[in-house]
Amino acid sequence: GESVGLHLPTLSVQEGDNSIINCAYSNSASDYFIWYKQESGKGPQFIIDIRSNMDKRQGQRVTVLLNKTVKHLSLQIAATQPGDSAVYFCAENISNQAGTALIFGKGTTLSVSS
Amino acid sequence: NAGVTQTPKFQVLKTGQSMTLQCAQDMNHEYMSWYRQDPGMGLRLIHYSVGAGITDQGEVPNGYNVSRSTTEDFPLRLLSAAPSQTSVYFCASSYELAVEQYFGPGTRLTVT
């Protein structure tokens, strides 16, 4: 089954609000996490990543927070804009006897209304 | 750089037909992978390659074959298409295993 998941399948916000998208993971040995944005009809685009030796990383209008104690990852988008409307996926680096791979969660659809 | 390109963008097959989905990248990435995306399922790894001549199975490899004769190309073959293979297929590449991957635009495949 999925080892990476999101708490909510959809999130609706008003333009200008801050958005928080959550993700829970189950593999405590995971050491690398990525957030992707996917717009309708397009492939996923990298937003931001974080390694397990960090608990926070900031980009342009986005911040990723990692809480290893409760195995929780979140993506914060400041001053959300209509162009932020998309599906957001978290991905987890999993290593086992079979190898190493990125495992994706099921995604949260963010809808921004003006 | 064109990045990751995929052809075709759309394809309709009848059950039992075969076809190859093409993927190419011009970033000299060693690592390439194929995912399928179904509604409500996120992205699932089909096959991946860590370099020319080296491929391995992902989460859902059954019904698909791959080969990697060059660094640039990583085709995905469906030998006998089934309706369960109706999906959107994404190819991705990266400079290292399981780090930020660059995705192609996808191929939407329908099997009737």
Structural topology:
The complex is a heterodimer of chains A (114) and B (112).
Chain A: E1 4-6, E2 10-14, E3 19-25, E4 32-38, E5 45-51, E6 56-58, E7 62-67, E8 72-77, E9 86-96, E10 99-104, E11 108-113
Parallel strand pairs in A: 2-11
Antiparallel strand pairs in A: 1-3, 3-8, 4-5, 4-9, 6-7, 7-8, 9-10, 9-11
Chain B: E1 4-7, E2 10-13, E3 19-25, E4 31-38, E5 42-51, E6 54-57, E7 64-66, E8 76-78, E9 87-94, E10 102-103, E11 107-111
Mind explaining what this structure looks like?
The complex is a heterodimer of chains A (114) and B (112). Chain A is mainly β and 114 residues long. In chain A, 0% of the residues lie in helices and 59% in strands. In chain A, strands 2, 4, 5, 9, 10 and 11 form a six-stranded mixed β-sheet that branches. The N and C termini of chain A lie far apart (37 Å). The mean pLDDT of chain A is 88. Chain B has 112 residues and is mainly beta. In chain B, strands 2, 4, 5, 6, 9, 10 and 11 form a seven-stranded mixed β-sheet that branches. In chain B, strands 1-3-8-7 form a four-stranded antiparallel β-sheet, with no helix packed on it. Chain B is globular and about 35 Å long. The chains are: A mainly beta (114), B mainly beta (112). The A-B interface holds A 2, 9, 32, 34, 41-46, 49, 89, 93-95, 99-107 and B 4, 35, 40-45, 48, 56, 58-59, 90, 92, 97-106.
